[in-house]
Each structure stands twice: as structure tokens, then as C-alpha cells.
Design goal:
It is built from five helices and nine strands. The chain is of the alpha/beta class. A hairpin with a 2-residue loop joins strand 8 and strand 9. The longest helix is centred in the middle third of the chain and has 13 residues.
């Protein structure tokens, strides 16, 4: 199987529609081969979204590595200003379709990590692509600081078996770090920019 972080997926397209509830709110998403979690909302993303205090999250938000769009679309449904990026062309197409399907207004664009990001955000929220490897993962997490306003937040989810405890320590070298939730081994980590 090709990785979901490739620019041009090569496997045959096989779109399907999934229906999910996030905090008891219904969403419909179209998914496809070569996108992350095509069979349903993964537990890590669900844990991330259900851990967010939407009363505190405001301003301009970037959904990094949006995939078919559940994070950005969920946030936009709650009247948040959201930009969404991914490197995978198939994922971007799905995210556009899913934004329309769920009636939200978002900005969606292609970017290799942050190379097409031209502004600073109040929040960058992501279920990062762990399988890209440690070097690129750390680049994603540390370089987020360059695209956050002062006191802006990077919020991400990672499993303890994928190095959550180590990441908490590493991120504390650059950010003020708070673990806002733990569930079934997943850590939701809030990193505030200095």
C-alpha cells in the first residue's frame, strides 16, 4: 500500500462514504485508498477532537496534514476560521468535497510541510503523520513555532508507543507543554509558543 503522505497516490481510486459522530454531532465524509484512516474516524483523531475546549480555541486555525478533512471540518462547523493543508492530492480533493458535503467554508491548499504556508496562526492542530519518520516528524512539530503567533498553540495527538513521552520532553525545550488528555495510550499535547 502506498503511504498517505505521498503527493500522487498510485493505487486505484475506490471512494466510499462514511458517517461518523464527533461529540454526538453527525458528519459524512467521503474517503478513498491512500488516505489516512479511510475506513472510519481513527481513535487518535477522535481523542484529539473530543479533548478540545472549543470555547477557548479562537482566531485562525491551521489543520496540518488534513487528510480527507475531519479535523478542519469539525472545527469549521463550530464557526472557526480554518485553513487545511496536505501533500496528498487525493486527500486534498476529498477534503474539498467533504467541506462542501458538511456545509463549511474553509481554505484548502497543497503544501510540503510548511513550504506554502505564508502566514501565522493562533492554532495549528494535527494528528501528525508518524510514519514519515522521526526526522520529518520533529521538523513538522518544531517548525510549527515559526507559523504560530506569540502565545499561539500547536495541539497534536500521538500514541505512547509512538514516542509520546519522549515528544513531551523534547517539545518542552521549545514550547510550554501541557498534556490535556490521555486515552487508551493516546496523548493530546498542547504546546504553547513563547
Amino acid at each position: 500500500m502506498a503511504h498517505y503522505f505521498e503527493v500522487h497516490p498510485t493505487s486505484k481510486s475506490s471512494r466510499k462514504t462514511i458517517k461518523v459522530f464527533i461529540n454526538d454531532e453527525p458528519f459524512t465524509f467521503v474517503t478513498d485508498n491512500d488516505v489516512f484512516s479511510k475506513n472510519g474516524l481513527d481513535f487518535g483523531t477522535r481523542t484529539l477532537l473530543e479533548s478540545l475546549d472549543l470555547n477557548k480555541i479562537d482566531g485562525h486555525i491551521l489543520d496540518f496534514g488534513c487528510g480527507y478533512g475531519p479535523i478542519g471540518i469539525y472545527l469549521a462547523k463550530h464557526h472557526k476560521q480554518v485553513d487545511m493543508l496536505d501533500i496528498n492530492e487525493r486527500a486534498l480533493s476529498l477534503a474539498c468535497d467533504n467541506a462542501l458535503q458538511n456545509g463549511v467554508d474553509v481554505t484548502i491548499f497543497a503544501s510540503d510541510i510548511y513550504d506554502k504556508v505564508t502566514q501565522k496562526y493562533d492554532y495549528i492542530i494535527t494528528n501528525p503523520p508518524i510514519r514519515v519518520g522521526k526526522t520529518i516528524l520533529l521538523k513538522i512539530l518544531f517548525e510549527a513555532q515559526n507559523y504560530l503567533v506569540p502565545n499561539g498553540h500547536l495541539i497534536f495527538v500521538v500514541h505512547k508507543d509512538q514516542g509520546a513521552k519522549t515528544l513531551v520532553k523534547l517539545m518542552a525545550e521549545k514550547y510550554e507543554v501541557n498534556v490535556i488528555n490521555k486515552s487508551k495510550g493516546f496523548y493530546v499535547i498542547d504546546c504553547q509558543n513563547y
